[in-house]
Specification:
This protein is an alpha+beta fold. It contains six helices and 17 strands. The strands form four sheets. Strands 6, 7, 8, 9, 10, 11, 14, 15, 16 and 17 form a ten-stranded mixed β-sheet that branches. It has a three-stranded antiparallel β-sheet with strand order 3-2-5. The protein has a two-stranded antiparallel sheet with strand order 1-4.
């Protein structure tokens, strides 16, 4: 017999269909080592699933102005904003982990936004990319973002794109993969992902921009320096124990 994947999962875990669909949509459900991508796909009712768990949120720092969170992958920035009751200062993609900042008052928020606009915020990421990248690289290519049906996708556009600058430093090479540090001067949507894809080093797991299928997009927001604050989130185990 066959049935929709989310219904089979719901029966096996004894949870609601809604909860089962949510787990699949988040990217947490696997059949063997293959991620289940379509919740409504027809599968054998005897299929056995493996469900990954989302690590707990960690508070890095908190005072009267700011709340710094170590965001796990598969949890959206908007969910954290809703649960915390504070406004997001910036966003991380669902599968990107690392430092996420929320603000507690409007006066500080305006100061912080001004720093972002002036390019005075230091933003450092870690990523595993495909291929061997042996030398430092500066990618200065304008990015255009198109939003449709609450989804965004970016591309390089010399005629309509906005300035985007990414500095890449190789850190480690394993097999045919390179661990890199990426420092961005600007903050365009999917900037690091698009830039690395354009130079033929897509981020592992970033299927939207040509990367190899993986458990997650291997991108981590490691450090942010803003005004008199500096925050850092340790790399997740899957970055340290890559392959």
């Amino acid at each position: 017999m066959r049935d929709k994947a989310y219904k089979v999962l719901a029966k096996q875990l004894d949870i609601s269909n809604k909860k089962a669909k949510e787990l699949i949509d988040r990217g947490l459900v696997y059949i063997g080592n293959r991620k289940v991508k379509i919740a409504r796909a027809e599968i054998d009712t005897k299929t056995k699933f493996r469900v990954s768990q989302i690590p707990k949120l960690k508070v890095i720092f908190e005072d009267e102005n700011i709340l710094a969170i170590d965001k796990p992958a598969f949890l959206t920035s908007e969910e954290i904003e809703k649960d915390s009751g504070y406004k997001l200062l910036h966003r991380l993609d669902k599968e990107t982990s690392g430092v996420l900042l929320l603000v507690k008052n409007e006066e500080f928020r305006e100061k912080a936004i001004d720093e972002f606009k002036k390019g005075e915020v230091y933003k450092e990421y870690i990523a595993w990319v495909e291929g061997i990248l042996a030398e430092e690289l500066t990618i200065d290519l304008p990015i255009l973002t198109i939003k449709k049906n609450n989804r965004a996708k970016s591309k390089i556009s010399y005629s309509k794109g906005k300035e985007a600058l990414t500095k890449i430093t190789p850190l480690e090479i394993i097999s045919k993969y390179t661990k890199i540090k990426a420092v961005i001067k600007t903050g365009r949507t999917h900037q690091i992902r698009v830039h690395l894809s354009r130079v033929d080093h897509p981020i592992v797991g970033d299927a939207l921009y040509g990367g190899k299928e993986w458990n997650r997009i291997m991108l981590h927001a490691k450090k942010i320096k803003l005004l008199d604050y500096s925050f850092e989130a340790n790399e997740p185990n899957e970055f340290i124990k890559f392959i």
